[in-house]
Structure formats: C-alpha cells, structure tokens
Hints:
Shape: globular
Structural class: alpha/beta
Largest sheet: 8 strands, parallel, barrel
Strand order of the largest sheet: 1-2-3-5-8-9-10-12
CATH architecture: Alpha-Beta Barrel
Radius of gyration: 18 Å
Order of helices and strands: EHHEHEEHEHHEEEHEHEHHEHEH
Number of domains: 1
Distance between the termini: 18 Å
Amino acid sequence: MNSKMNIGIFGGAVNSGTIDDVVAEARSAESDGFASYWAPNIFGHDALTALAIVGREVPRIEIGTSVVPTYPRHPMMIAQQSHSVNAVSNGRLCLGIGLSHKVVIEGMMGISFDKPVRHLREYLSVLMPLARGESVKFDGEVYKTFGALTIAGASPFSVVVAALGPQLLRVTGALADGTLTWCTGPETLKTLTVPTINAAAKQAGRPVPRVIAALPVCVTNDSAAAKERVAKVFAMYGQLPSYRAMLDHEGAAGPADIAIVGSASEVAQRVADLAGIGVTDFAAVEVGANPDENAATRAAMKSLL
C-alpha cells in the first residue's frame, strides 16, 4: 500500500475547449508539479487524439484517459492508438477504459450492452498482451483475435479500468493494472474498491494495483453553495445505475455528498486521508465558482505534493 499518494489533475478542457485549451490545461498541471493529467472521453474531443498532442507539447507529466468507452472500439484498435500516443509521449500514457453506460451504448449508439462482465474479461484478454507488446491469440465468445502490432518506438503502456461493482473489480484486479473511480466516496473505496481489487490481483499473482480516485474538490468559504453547484453540474451521475450503486453504498444522496469542499486545511486533510485506505492516486476535479476559489483549490492540491 502506498503511503505516498500521487496527486493529479482531472481536466475539463477536452470537453469544453479547443485543443490549445487542453494543452494549456495540461501544461499548467505540469508546471504546478502534479504527477498526472487525466482527460475524459465523452462527447467533446477524442481523448487519445488530444493526449497525443499534449504528449508532444508537454514533456514530463503522466497523461491518462478517464475513460475511453470499450464497446465502440475493438481492443486491437485501441491498443494500436494507445501505442501511438505512448510513442509520441515517450512512454507516459496510462490508458483508462470503461464500459460507459447502457443508455449511451445501446440508447445512443445502438450497440449491444449484453453481459458487461464477460465483455470486460474478453476485452482485457485481447488488450493486455498487445499493451505489453506481445502477440494475441484469443478465441472467446465475443472476440476472436489473432495478431500483433509492430509500431516503431512503442513501449508497454498500462491499462486501468473504471470498475465500480465487485464483479468488474475482480476481473480488473486479475487482468489489468488498476482501477479509476468516479463518484465513489472514501467509505466505499475503503470497504469495497480497494480490498476487492487487491485480493483479485493477489490471487492472480499480479502486483498491487493502482487505485486512482477522482472526486470533485473545492476550497471555499461557502460550502453550501459549492455543494449545490456540484449537485447541479453532476446531477446525471446520481441517476446512472453504476454510479448510483456507488453513492448508495456510501449512503450518499448524490454527488454533492461525496464532494470534498470546505476550508483549505479541511480539503487537504480529506484528500490526504485517502492514502491511508489504499488509494494510490488522486485526480482532483476542481469545481471552483470563481478565480479565487479556483486558485485556492489549486493551492490546496499543491500543498499535498
């Protein structure tokens, strides 16, 4: 268990801004000394494409996706794209993948969301050998993949999975390098996420996995207003079944109840406490309402470096 937790920044510019904004956001995280910069992949820019440019422009910080949905992309194709981004960035990519949600995959894209646990197990069975630079020979129910990638300058990249429930955590612990959580509070991380993935990794003879926790953070004099804002901005996460299950496990009515808001010392302490329960990395989703709150929130995160 890491007593020293890495602190990273969870970016928003990939959805709200231009590629130049994404680069500027990553550059700011790097110059502030943060360990990692995470880009979501929703309906804005493609995260891996954006991170290829970040990897070229911003020389040192770890870059990660949080997360790329699996169903629309064949695991061999995502391995090819990730190796390219990793080559551009001199081996700094952490590929975060996730199942997304039935409402997106079936409702919007018209792709079957059938048997998500089987899907993840087979997806990782194809992806992980390719991520390590090996050939793959996999004959499953969903994926039948035989081949290898030859990419000049490639080096192995790590893969983490947005695994929330126990079944997905067990598959992830056995096959991948760690998990990346959202809307998952400290009690759930302590009693469900960390012990489940660690036990599965140990049983599979794999190293202790990374547990990367992302939560909304705001240093403010008005906690009530900050929580109200979090409740509004992240309202949909209280309704998506996989996140709802995590909030229920925590005894939280909605995302506002797991947001880390308050004074600088209070916020820093609550983030620091996550290290003691086995969280290896924290990705701050900064949710200040104005430049003062943004600066104070960033300063509190820097105090933990």
